[in-house]
Hints:
Distance between the termini: 38 Å
Number of strands: 3
Strand order of the largest sheet: 1-2-3
Shape: globular
Order of helices and strands: HHHHHEEEHH
Helix content: 55-70%
Largest sheet: 3 strands, antiparallel
Radius of gyration: 19 Å
Structural class: mainly alpha
Amino acid sequence: MNGITIDKRFVLAFRLLMGWTFLYAGAWQVLSSDFSAATFLAHTKTFHDVYAPLTSPTIAPILTFLVSWGHLLIGLSLVFGLLVRVSGVFGVALLLTYWTAHMDFPYIESHVNLMIDYHIVYATLTIWLVVANAGRVYGLDGWIAEHRPFRRSAASAY
């Protein structure tokens, strides 16, 4: 086995793992009548003044829809390798939002996590997937790139 094969396997594995993480959260949120983004945001501490207005009755249903379907679509995108560079950016934005929402400075969620928790780890991995163009590794982004109907080859460029 060469290094390129192992690298592609890692890219695929990490893309599928992050995809499943988002997909499972999104499926649960979309199918659950109990899910509300406002419930989560009502308990913020460090950035409470930033997130509290998002819990208002006029904004909360819209935000809940966007968060739940956003998770689901980001998960599907990562699992199938379609539009990974776009969905990855939205995924990182969501993860960093959760990181700040969980913050009770300098701790995240509990005294065990000093500034760093799994949201930062997931965000870093998602950034790596975007930079690595992970959708082209056994994904639909790669298939589409190879099968574009009007793809110009190097020989026909001149």
